Amino acid sequence: EAQVTQNPRYLITVTGKKLTVTCSQNMNHEYMSWYRQDPGLGLRQIYYSMNVEVTDKGDVPEGYKVSRKEKRNFPLILESPSPNQTSLYFCASSLMVGVTDTQYFGPGTRLTVL
Amino acid sequence: GDSVTQMEGPVTLSEEAFLTINCTYTATGYPSLFWYVQYPGEGLQLLLKATKADDKGSNKGFEATYRKETTSFHLEKGSVQVSDSAVYFCALSPHTGNQFYFGTGTSLTVIP
Prior knowledge:
The complex is a heterodimer.
Chain A (H helix, E strand, L loop, with lengths): L3 E4 L2 E4 L5 E7 L5 E8 L3 E10 L2 E4 L7 E2 L9 E3 L8 E8 L9 E2 L3 E5 L1
Parallel strand pairs in A: 2-11
Antiparallel strand pairs in A: 1-3, 3-8, 4-5, 4-9, 5-6, 7-8, 9-10, 9-11
Chain B lengths: L2 E4 L4 E4 L4 E3 L1 E4 L5 E7 L5 E7 L5 E4 L2 E4 L9 E3 L8 E8 L7 E2 L3 E6 L1
Parallel strand pairs in B: 2-12
Antiparallel strand pairs in B: 1-4, 3-9, 5-6, 5-10, 7-8, 8-9, 10-11, 10-12
């Protein structure tokens, strides 16, 4: 089954404790992206990647890191999480650079930073 | 910069009512426009899209027309069902560039 998977689905952590949210797709997609969803703000793009070893900042990259060492994986790293990073996070992928392509979303990771 | 503005929610309708969710955009050039739907507890799914002016996207009874003169991409459905209850997001992708911009989402509840 073609899908985007994220782990964990739920995470509660404390300020300053490094964490990684994994994202994997099995569709051989080139483009991958991370978003955060906050009430009243919709989805905002954090980082995106057009291909292996090619990443770029979205609208809200501060406090986040990403890497794209393999085509299928695009982990989101929070080196020192803070409470303002409490949010619902979505990973997405599309076959090509996303101008007209459909993005496929993972199920989301709900992160709480205490 | 590029952005999307969509109507505030929540919207509550009776089954079989007509639905319109307004979406306007700001972008240079000719962006591609999308409507995504998010059912409770799930990720977003593409509902429909349009890639050039005057294109009409349609899917599952929903329609939206890309109007460059009014910079709009309003979502419509003639007769909503309870199963259409979800959050709807308007989005754009600039003609040049690799980012996506989403609206704030409009929550729709359809009551029997």
